[in-house]
Amino acid sequence: MTVSGDGGGDGGVRVVARPHVAVIGASQAGPVESALAFTVGDLLVRAGAVIVCGGGGGVMEAACRGAQLAAEGLSRGGHPEPESGRAPLDRAAEIVTIGILPGLDRAAANPYVDVAIPTGMGELRNGLIVRAVDAVVAVGGAYGTLSEIALALRAGKRVVGLQTWELSPEQLPDDGFVVAAEAEEAVAIALDAARSAKL
């Protein structure tokens, strides 16, 4: 969330919500999936988004690490993506990663999570992740990722797949699932969906 002093001429404060995008995938990821997730995290933060994930290792940790390194670069005066219109980040105040944890131990989050939310819900927390976001990027993954994809589609969220489950278009009720060939394409599609989403 960004606060602006321009409240429409009445001296008020205008709050601008940042896109929230889930990055989902396996807690045990190979080098290809980790590299894709890292790039997705980096690009999302440079475009002004907040990353929401399960807070664990693998794809989640790689995405959060990419996000944090991008945020550090932006806080040192690096340039955000032009279309985001964002000023450099204030790392003391800016949240870029949120982890919605399956357990009750906040310390179980990977070290790149800014805000860890313990739920004690186990895999049921997958529903919270997809409900908290505007769009989803799925990188690789196993059955837990498949459940998140299904929950997101059922909730009407755009899901972008990167080397993840293949879903037959004729079996889907709408065009909510899109396959991307590379991280840049996945981020562009997710951000477009997030910016037009109505929560």
How would you concisely characterize the structure shown here?
With 199 residues, this protein is of the alpha/beta class. It has helices at residues 31-46, 59-75, 125-131, 143-154, 183-196, and strands at 2-4, 14-16, 20-25, 50-53, 97-101, 115-118, 135-139, 158-162, 177-179. It has one domain: 3-Layer(aba) Sandwich (Rossmann fold).
Q: What distance lies between the first and last C-alpha atoms, to the nearest angstrom? A: 15 Å
Order of helices and strands: EEEHEHEEHEHEEH
Structural class: alpha/beta
Largest sheet: 7 strands, parallel
Helix content: 25-40%
In CATH terms, what is the architecture?
A: 3-Layer(aba) Sandwich
- What is the spatial order of strands in the main beta sheet? 6-5-4-3-7-8-9
Q: Total helix count? A: 5
How many distinct folded domains?
1
Name the CATH class. Alpha Beta
Q: What's the quaternary structure here?
A: single chain
Total strand count, please?
9
What is the general shape?
globular
Which percent range describes the beta-strand content?
15-25%
- Low-pLDDT windows of residues: 1-6
- Find the CATH topology: Rossmann fold
